[in-house]
Predict the 3D structure of the following.
Amino acid sequence: MKQVLTIVFTLTVLLSCSSNKSEIEELKKEIETLKNQKTQVSKEEKNDEIQNDEYTNTSPTLTADEYYNKGLGYAKKGEYQLAIDNFTKGIKLDLDGANLAIAYNNRGLSYFYLGNYEDAIADYTRAIRIDPDFTDAYFNRGLSCKKLGNYEAAIADYTRAIRLNPAADAYIGRGNIYEKLGNYEAAKADYTRARRIKSL
């Protein structure tokens, strides 16, 4: 900006003191070039600010809950990476921890749908540490463990979910693993329990 002001001042002096039109025209072109450069730099800086705010910074204009809601919206549309980005921003702002367990569980689900089972398990584990009776987190962690072939851990998580809330899906999940392991009697028992629950 200083450079532009200096050239404008020089041009004013030349206009009053010189009749050399070609020199004045050159200065005008130089001023225009500098203005265009300044405009371009401003646009690039603005774009950088927008990109940084969207992907790396946590904007103070939104609350943790608003980021969580944005994350849920993206997850419903299948845009799981954007969901993860927004859940992460919300988690950073959730100072009282009111919805942290749910946020970690939801971010874990987004990781799961992207096939990133290790990060999903890490988030479900964080959710369970905050809320040891969070049935969904146990169920979801069991599902991720099953995807990784860690059947013992999956059975343990499904069993814990069943103790907290004996839902058909948890029995079916555990039954699937028993069947895969060749424990057909246990599998049949779990499928039978699931059928009873579904028939209620």
